Amino acid sequence: MDCLFCSILEGKIPSAKVYEDPFVYAFRDINPQAPVHVLVIPKTHLASLDEVTAENAEAVSHVLAAIPRIAAAEGLEKGYRVITNVGEHGCQSVRHLHFHILGGKQLSETMD
Ligand code: 5GP
Ligand code: ZN
Asked: Does the Cβ of 15 fall within 6 Å of ligand 1?
């Protein structure tokens, strides 16, 4: 399977690691949209939130549990935004489930 983020997990493509545990990997977005822009991914391949089920949701729960720890380590005590894009209308460009953490400035009130 040809997946960019699986290649990053395998170390075939370099990335700026922010956090790692047995289930989760986080790294800096190559094209940051805010002073802090981190991507948080499960180590198991799921294409998007659309593939999450009760059976595999544990992989996602580890990701969600890591997010506030990463945000705190990045100094985002004033707040941040978490986004996961799904499919064409969601403008998902990489088909490996990922959560964007955006912060480090006052973000806009609009989300579209
Ligand atoms: P999406 O549009 O799928 O929600 O987000 C994909 C994100 O991955 C984009 O913000 C894009 O900048 C980032 N990205 C794409 N290729 C790479 C890469 O090779 N390395 C890193 N660190 N980020 C990437
Ligand atoms: Zn993948």
From this structure: yes
